[in-house]
Amino acid sequence: MVTTQPSSTNAWTDFLEHFRETLATASPRLRAISESQSVIPKAEGKWSSKEIVGHLIDSAANNHQRFVRAQFSDELVFAGYEPNEWIRVQHYMDEPWADLVQLWQLYNQHILHLMSFVPTETRTKLRSKHNLHQIASDTISENDAVTLDYFMRDYLDHMKKHLGQILA
Ligand code: NI
Predict the structure, then answer these.
(1) Which residues pair with residue 76 across a beta bridge?
(2) How many A from CA of 158 to the centre of ligand 1?
(3) Up-side HSE of residue 159: CA atoms within 13 Å toward CB?
(4) How many A from CA of 71 to the centre of ligand 1?
(5) Could you write out the three-class secondary structure of 90-111?
(6) In angstroms, what is the span from residue 17 Cα to ligand 1's centroid?
(7) Residue 53 and residue 97: Cα distance in Å, rounded?
(8) Ligand 1 centroid vs 28 CA: distance in angstroms?
(9) Calpha distance 168→156 (Å, rounded)
(10) For residue range 27-84, what is the model confidence (pLDDT) as tens digits?
(11) Which helix (H) or strand (E) holds 63?
């Protein structure tokens, strides 16, 4: 696999539409899950739906900053976050399920909004200095130049993977 290419070769407008559809489809399905169902671990020792959506809120919060900061820099070098530790200290299990789903949905609608305004040149510029081998969910070599386009598509791939854990 050539890692400098976006994970999908779809046109950018198709990607944005796919992102919009993912939110529109998943949101009512998440809201249909009850408060009592939302706290049940998906498997022994695994996250509950609340914790998975909490993890997706953490992903949104971290990547929101990255997607903004990337537009003021030639690099894609960002702080990481340790998923279990972030979930642990925020006590997502003690927050109402409906609130978490709403926060996840609105935060992602904003991220979709900001993505739609990123100039093409900024989005497709090859960046040789990055740490996507550490912070992106797909395996990338430190030595391959990457684009913000790739990183944004990777964000949605990660979200879809976790939504599948809840909605499958
Ligand atoms: Ni994850």
Answers:
(1) 130
(2) 6
(3) 27
(4) 24
(5) HCHHHCCHHHHHHHHHHHHHHH
(6) 22
(7) 9
(8) 21
(9) 17
(10) 999 999 999 999 999 888 999 999 999 999 999 999 999 999 999 999 999 999 999 9
(11) helix 49-69
Expressed in angstroms and rounded, the spacing between residue 20 Cα and the centre of ligand 1 is: 20
Q: How far apart are CA 86 and CA 55, in angstroms?
A: 8
Q: Quickly list DSSP for 37-58.
A: HHTSBSSTTSPBHHHHHHHHHH
Q: What CATH number is given for 12-167 in this structure?
A: 1.20.120.450
Distance 157 CA to ligand 1 centre (A): 10
Q: How far is CA 81 from the centre of its chain?
A: 13
Is the pLDDT assigned to residue 3 strictly greater than 80?
Answer: no
Q: Which residue has the tokens 């200290």?
A: 89
Angle at 126 between CA 1 and CA 133, to 5 degrees: 55
Domain ranges of the chain: 12-167
What amino acid is encoded at 90 in this protein? Answer: Q
